[in-house]
From TrEMBL:
Record EC number: 2.7.1.56
Pfam families in the cross-refs: PfkB
Keywords, in A-Z order: ATP-binding, Kinase, Nucleotide-binding, Transferase
Cellular component GO terms, alphabetical: cytosol
Family stated for the protein in its record: Belongs to the carbohydrate kinase PfkB family.
One MF term in the entry's GO annotations: ATP binding
Domain Carbohydrate kinase PfkB: 18-290
Gene Ontology biological process terms in this record: carbohydrate catabolic process; small molecule metabolic process
Annotated source species: Streptomyces beijiangensis
Keyword Protein biosynthesis set for record: no
Protein name per Swiss-Prot or TrEMBL: 1-phosphofructokinase
Amino acid sequence: MILTVTPNPSLDRTYEVPALGRGEVLRATGDRMDPGGKGVNVSRAVAAAGHRSVAVLPLGGAPGALVAELLAAEGIVVAPVPVAGDTRSNISIAEPDGTLTKINAAGPELTAAESELLLSAIRTHSTAADWIACCGSLPPGLAPEWYAELVARAHGAGVRIALDTSGPSLLAALRERPDVVKPNADELAQAVGRPLATIGDAVKAAQELRESGAAAVLASLGADGQLLVSDSGTYFAWAPVETVRSNVGAGDASLAGFLAAGGTGPDALRSAVAHGAAAVQLPGSVMPTPQDLDLAAVIVTAEVPLDRVLTEQGSPR
């Protein structure tokens, strides 16, 4: 069972448009509504793959009630923590060439009491968990050290923990030695404070995160593939993608695939890339099922092409 923690969940609305024109009236060719937030997407991908997932998240108001309803409909066990503020609503606009424009709200401010209730709910439900996946930004009211405290508590309970966040929250959590961290190229560049132009640059940055405390680094490099840097070695993997329809939640699907496959080694990396490649070919934040996956198409190698220039170079913004 994979337990997910989403401190700042959302209700996500995705619109597909022929082209995005600033100041124009746009006619959507398709739209959908999904429960959102990085941890929520991990739970959805785990459930779509046929595994059990429990989603711990603060929920408030009508948007929060709808998020819980949508998650339950996907077979996910929802462990809501009631909060006074309304759950945020986000908007994504997807164009045919794969370009995605997102508008994300800040989310409700959590009180100290609500923060403690969230930690208590995680402790209660983590006893049966094989992994805890903590994902996304922290809402107003939670200090950057909140994830660090969560990692420490998880390890105290003997549970492995994967962390997908960025900035001060990531750096603060490294001291508690999370089992896996999953940055993208920009987040990796931000963590080391310099741009990343090649896959070799990304490998060096991942090694620095390991030196700072991460047991393993699963780095998403967009269309260029993914890296895994851990005690078992350094591996690079990629898969061909015919058409990118939406990259919303693709990184979260990758993390779900990695953890569902054991969370260690090249086989888990292969699963991560297969899940991510399948996700970008689906609309909105739809998560891939086993029928969508093509594990045979994924190439995994320990001969990392260090000099290859990244298509989407990491920038420490």
